[in-house]
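User: Please predict the structure of the protein below. I'd like the answer in structure-token form so I can feed it into my own downstream comparison script.

Assistant: Understood. Taking the following sequence of 93 residues as input:
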Amino acid sequence: MCCMVAALFAFGPRAAILVWWLVDQIRWNQAFDTFLWPLAGFLVAPWTTLMWVLVFPAGITGFDYVWLIIGIGMDVISWSGGAYSGRNRMATA
């Protein structure tokens, strides 16, 4: 079960980015000027990239910052979760 959750966190947002980009390229072109930022977001921070595309075209104001912070938090959780779960696997001297 834990592996399924880890796989969902790893591939879920990246799959959503790919599908959303294929379906609605106009929104992605509004949110990003170049292809480099979405590519970097796909590789490093997919949750933040999804939240940025979700809130950016209407302009970022008010409650939109909360959505961006949630995206950043989800990225931090997905990156640091492996370190926390693997803490007991380290051999002690």
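That's the full token string. The mean pLDDT is 83.
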